Amino acid sequence: MKEQMAINGGEPVRSKPLPPMLRGAMVYGEEETEHVAKVVTAGSPFRYYGPNLQGAVEEFERLMAERLNVSYVLGVSSCTAALIVALKALGIGYGDKVIVPANTFTATAGAVVCANAVPVFVDMDDTLNMDVDDLERVMDDEVKAIIAVHINGSACDMDRVMAFARKYDLPVIEDVAQSLGCTYKGRYCGTIGDIGVYSFQMQKILTAGEGGAVVTNSPELFERAARYHDQGNFRDKGKHQITPKFSFIGQNYRMNEMTGAVMIEQWKKLDTVISAMRKHHQTIREALNTQLPGIRIRPSIDLQGDVDCVFALQHATKAAADSFVKAMNAENIFCFKMYGGEPIYMQSFFLHQRTTDKDNFPFNYPFQKPVIYSKGMCPHAEDLLQRTTLLPVSPVMTDEDTQDIIKAVVKVYKGLNLEEISWPNSSLA
What domain of life is recorded for the organism (predicted)? Predict the structure, then answer.
């Protein structure tokens, strides 16, 4: 006999919500407080000089470089800043196009525009990441780079992304904002392409509220990134033993010492955060595959490398997904659709190419192949995002919390008869 769902008057699985959709913020402790206090007491919050400089940002960069096995790390003020810095390090600007996946946060495409270039959008595959098979559709001589986004803790198919990029001599930026610690075939995401970017915003795997980082193995790209983030200065040439090659005007995207102090302590907790999320995610996965054999869980190109910060289910129809979200929230299990179920280009300012600049610069460039955004341009993203639901996974969830998620999913799935709904021909294999 089916248990009555809360949405129909039954008793909810939980009487109170699960932990919020936060990761690193949930493991804050005295360590972060004490390290920030040292910076404040020293009166030296600026990373490059002060009466008693603590070197927090530099130490964080060292720890990050050591863990990721990458030559250079640059702390910056946000991941949006990191994206702009990476684009400028690669020389991207007015008259250039940059390939961006349809499924990503506003900042990925927005940073391209802020770098005075224009994004061209590629469809996503069933993993919710970039569909490599769709890259040829948007490729032309005006495309100058690719941004591969590792979405919600799971890697892109980087072997194929890199093969395509090398075929056309395109640099690759890896956006790892949502997937710190994620690996692809044993390598950390962000270290496979030419340059990688990370986020330490509030909802991310580790957080200082805001903050970001740029990583690369190229001394030239590092120098250009360092200069652009520090108004044209290159203050670390001695430390890295790099002979300067460039001179240009930059902006101010520097990370401050208080952010660096927090990130040092957060960085020490990375394994704890990821292992906890993986444990809960695996428990949910195994239970649902057993209790609901027909359920469709988001596939992964490298399941062992995922950081498992969300649990994604894919449904047969939009209506089924809508009903699932509503019913799960009634059970006090937070459930939602990523970005409201729409690809990034459907946001009005992208769709209509609106900027604050004259003639909607940089969209006013006379491209040989005009850049036009429209509904239907990435059909799989438009379809599957409406049929995909996400359940956040927190590192401070208890085993009881995990069992409540399982119980609620099974209850709602059976209560809505989701196993009986026919899948469209375009659904997952």
Answer: Bacteria
